[in-house]
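Hi team, as promised in this morning's meeting, here are the two structures we talked about. I've kept the exact order from the run log so nobody has to guess. The first one is mostly here for context; it's the second one we should focus on when we meet again. Sequence first, then the predicted structure tokens.
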Amino acid sequence: MAHAVELLAEQIEGKTEKSWRDDPFTAQALLHGISHLLRHFAPVHKKGAPVPPAIKDAAGKMSSVNAKHFCSPEGFAHLMAFKLIGEIHDAVAQRVPGLIPGLWGVQIVFTAKPEMLALVGRDFGLTKKR
């Protein structure tokens, strides 16, 4: 999947002659292209489809409002993306002098090696802005 997204990004950037990190049109084109790509190959989600047991178990430890959000594909994806975004920012902050890691100064437990997350952050342009 990552390679497919890379190929799509290269094709879109080649046609627009702009980087998705710098050009809003190119960024939106890539966002929509990734969505179309995944929709084409993903199984169709039907309303009322069963929630995976692991998600139900985790939701059982949450408030009812949070559990309802967590048990939807959109809510679950939001939480997972938010967590990864935080890890990428923290990994970059650990590598760039003067940046403070974590929202509260506490390091997040990384799901991937901090070095790899820092490279992802670099690719997203986080180190250029600092």
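And here is the second protein, the one for discussion:
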Amino acid sequence: MTPTLGEHLEAYYRLLATWNTKINLTGLRLSEISPDALDRLLIEPVVAAKYVAPRASRMLDVGSGGGSPAIPLALAAPKMRLLMVESKTRKSVFLREAVRVLGMKDADVVTARFEELLSRPDLHEAHDLVTIRAVRVESRVLVTLQAFAKPGGHVFLFRGSGHADPSESVTPPLTWKATYPLIESLRSRLVVLEKRVR
């Protein structure tokens, strides 16, 4: 019998909590299951999955860290190939273990800074979806990220309550498409940018 999404999410959370005692994967306290941790790490990405384009087949997650939002989002949208990019070796080791434990055959991990991937032509304009949960997303970061998105593809920015909405400062070929609320108690939202078709 195939595990349900809930079972996969539970297995991921348990693995994350175990590893987080050894290496700092998230600043959230995971020793006790808290609503904030569940909302941020699991529910936000699952809610965001409903905004993934129906035909999306390849996803690139930048600065994957402990695997959220990438892993829960990919589990909730299982037809996508996932490439997680993480510059820290120890976090990459965790991500590979999570992929193995969860049986995510269509997921890979690259240990590199995302800027280094610009030298790989196979990744240029190859992804329907690029995701990032970062404290600060500057216009130069977006310019780099858009290189990995297909024309017509999307960039998902996971934003907390204290982060400005970048809809005013987006530069072509990206355009602001929509901003969706994610978790009301966290006042979190998903900013969706679209790469223009030439």
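Starting points for discussion:
The mean pLDDT is 92.
The chain is about 30% helix and 25% strand.
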